[in-house]
Amino acid sequence: MRVNLAVIIILTVLAGSSTKPSMEGKVKKIHKKALTVDTHCDTPMNLLNTGFDIGIKNQAPRNRVDFPRMEEGGLDAIFFAAFTGQRARTQENYQKAYGRANQMIEATFTVCEKYNDMAKVALKAEDAYKLEKEGKRAIYIGMENGFPLGTSINRVEEFYNKGVRYITLCHSSNNDICDSSTDREGPEHNGLSSFGKEVVKEMNRLGMLIDVSHISDKAFFDVVEESVAPVMASHSSVRAIANHNRNMTDEMIKKLAENNGVIQICLLDEYVKDPDTTTMRYKLEQEIRQNYFSIWEELSNEKKDEVRQEWNAIKEKYPKKLPTVADYVDHIDHVKNLVGIDYVGIGSDFDGGGGLKDCVDVAQFPNITREMVKRGYTEEEIIKVWGGNFMRVFREVEKLSRNN
Ligand SMILES: [Zn+2]
User: Fold this and answer.
1) Helices then strands (H, E): number in the chain?
2) 272 with 327: CB under 8 angstroms?
3) Dist CA 182 CA 190 (whole Å)
């Protein structure tokens, strides 16, 4: 009896040890082989904070991106977004947004020069493949919100010349380019404005990727109609799974596939899974939203601070249950089943709210690869999701620009 039990234990241990390493080995091999690209993070905001050093691992653990953690997570390329929040469209605010976007772009160049053994600013699709061979991270620059353009079409080329390779046409509110998916006042232009149409044309001419994340559904369909090149959503998920206006409907995803574009699935909790509306945290947050958000700009600075403190206290007291990598990969499955594997990729929104229970930062990206391997995705499919699809779009945008 004893002997039998011992034999069983040994066999069990052997069985375990023979399957585990092969699964892990496969995950590692595929993750290493793939050119891994994350098309959206808001890290440049952190670069403007004095005291944050992107070359030091975990120096600021609340920040989700630094060069050593990119290396640890096998992340080859990332888009740093020069983000500006939408404010009233006055000349003064246009100038402020323009100045801030420039600061973030300059800061990105500065840190890449400082740590040129680890990272380099990339400008063309091919650069990421070259830098991967050199063992360096490719840092691309995007711009989240076209607000810094003001109403000046010349600034599109100006920012292109400064290294910007995509523009997310708007952010949480409508701007001069188009309607936002989340503006409280609803649509203003019924989609893309006439200035927006000029911007799309100019971006096509220059070879800049048009980012349709954040824009309204109608604006999305207008952009696809106007653009001669494929477009991408740098950080959006699937609305059929998480019912948020920031996510794309099946109809939009089908149109995007027809356009040969790509949806880069976002890691932000509410875009991955509908929030649990029964929790105390949700209830208290909703109260604050209802009481203050519509009158926010009218509040005194003291009152704003008070509300912020209240908000942070709720966050501390009732920690959020974040969705998991498995919930996340459900979105990739959905796009694959709807239109095929060629139209989906990854855009974290790290440092802008993105993060899952088991993928809190760039170092944990291999967990996404592991989940895809577990679900039976082939090596070829995983390589497409991690960067192949996005790079196809990027190259096509570059090519069409040269042909024009
Ligand atoms: Zn965003």
Assistant:
1) 16, 9
2) yes
3) 14
pTM: 0.91
CA distance 109 to 342: 32
Helix/strand/coil for 76:
coil
Output the CA 41–ligand 1 centroid distance in Å: 8
What is the token pair recorded at 86? 């939408």
Rounded to 5 degrees, what are φ and ψ at 266? -90, 145
Is 81 strand, coil or helix? strand
Q: Is 135 left (phi over 0), alpha (psi -120 to 50) or beta?
A: left
- Ligand 1 center from residue 269 Cα (angstroms): 13
CATH architecture of 21-275+322-403: Alpha-Beta Barrel (3.20)
Q: Which residues contact 345 (CB under 8 A, 6 or more apart)?
A: 37, 39, 232, 262, 263, 264, 265, 385, 386, 387, 389, 390
Distance 34 CA to ligand 1 centre (A): 25
Do the strands 262-266 and 119-121 form a parallel or antiparallel pair, or are they unpaired? unpaired
Q: How far is CA 208 from CA 235, 294, 346, in A?
A: 17, 35, 19
Q: Are 138 and 122 in contact (CB under 8 A)?
A: yes
Question: For tokens 């600034």, what's the residue?
Answer: 155
d(CA 302, CA 157): 41
pLDDT by residue (tens digit) across 53-68? 999 999 888 899 999 9
CA distance linking residue 216 with residue 403, whole number of Å: 30
pLDDT in tens, 304-343: 899 999 999 998 899 888 999 999 999 999 999 999 999 9
Domain segments of the chain as ranges? 21-275+322-403, 277-320
Give yes or no for a contact between 347 and 77, defined as CB atoms under 8 angstroms apart. Answer: no
Element holding 276 (H helix, E strand):
none
CA of 115 to the centre of ligand 1 (A): 27
Residue 211 C-alpha to ligand 1 middle, in angstroms? 10
Query: Which residues are CB-neighbours of 394 under 8 A, at least 6 positions away?
Result: 125, 165, 209
**How far lies 41's CA from each of 266, 297, 337, 362, in Å?**
10, 27, 27, 10
